[in-house]
Amino acid sequence: MNRNKTFKQIPDFKLSPTVDKVGVEERVARFQTRSIKNESKVQGLKMVLNMIDLTTLEGKDTPGKVRQLCYKAQHLHDLQEGLPTVAAVCVYPTMVAEAKKALGDSGIKVASVSTAFPSGQSTREIKLLDTQFAVDNGADEIDMVISRGKFLAGDYNFVFDEIAAIKEVCGKARLKVIFETGELASLDQVRRASDIAMYAGADFIKTSTGKIQPAATMQVTYTMLCAIRDFYRKTGVKVGMKPAGGISSSKLALHNLVMVKETLGNEWLNNEWFRFGASSLANDVLMQLVKQETGHYQSADYFSID
């Protein structure tokens, strides 16, 4: 049964709360001034690493490239003892079986984009088939894109019904719903999309595909975290958060963790409820961790290029 069917009344999404843009910017600015001691920084960097969805989503992806990414995901401890694995490897549906085989029993999840990623411009029938194909090939998680054209035209029921239909096909796979916030124009629209996705059954809400800028700004992520907080207070249902696109530095990732802790609390500070959609971020985190241990930065060439 879809989660949306468990609610007695679905809200009118035209009446989603408006967002105080100035208030959001002031709050985000305060998150960025928090000082982090070295011991806490190392703990935070390892937490960030364990929250990353290593990603390859290019037309030139090959089975060999996917296997290489999966190898990196499983062997970070070769660079430094005691490092965790990443949370997941995210690929196109046609590469799910290859990633599943390469990751074996490592415990690292296989995530697949679907629903005509990244544009979302296709029929619902094709989107359902796209998702079913990924699930049938072993995807543990589905990262779908919403139909932004329908959303921006104000057809919120269409967007809600489409998310609910995809959720039904997912079965046991967790569903991350991507908004492509760079196309939504305002924080009010980001808040509305968040509410629609959560009531329709999203397990995670996600900022971006990584193909459009601006992507995961802290203002957008904070707006989505506040929506998750309000939804949890109203329904008792936890929803995860995944900022993706534009987070390439350890410093920015740590600022995001501070924001999660102060908005949602410690319960969300794990990879079951918070993820980063990135690949270059992993290399920067590894570089910072080696620096903390040795006192010296390694050359960027020391880490694999994804």
Automatic annotation (TrEMBL):
Query: Which EC class heads this enzyme's classification?
Result: lyase
Source organism, top-level taxon:
Bacteria
**Single Gene Ontology BP term?**
deoxyribonucleotide catabolic process
Q: Which Gene3D superfamilies match?
A: Aldolase class I
Could you list this entry's UniProt keywords, alphabetically sorted. Answer: Lyase, Schiff base
Q: Which GO terms describe its molecular function?
A: deoxyribose-phosphate aldolase activity
Looking up InterPro entries in the UniProt record yields: Aldolase_TIM (IPR013785), DeoC (IPR011343), DeoC/FbaB/LacD_aldolase (IPR002915)
**SMART domains named among the record's database cross-references:** DeoC (SM01133)
> EC annotation?
4.1.2.4
Pathway the protein acts in: Carbohydrate degradation; 2-deoxy-D-ribose 1-phosphate degradation; D-glyceraldehyde 3-phosphate and acetaldehyde from 2-deoxy-alpha-D-ribose 1-phosphate: step 2/2
Q: Where are the transmembrane segments?
A: none
Q: Does the keyword Cytoplasm apply?
A: no
Record field: catalytic activity: 2-deoxy-D-ribose 5-phosphate = D-glyceraldehyde 3-phosphate + acetaldehyde
What cellular-component terms does GO give this entry?
cytoplasm
Q: Which NCBIfam families match?
A: deoC (TIGR00126)
Q: Which family does it belong to?
A: Belongs to the DeoC/FbaB aldolase family. DeoC type 2 subfamily.
Q: Know the name of this protein?
A: Deoxyribose-phosphate aldolase
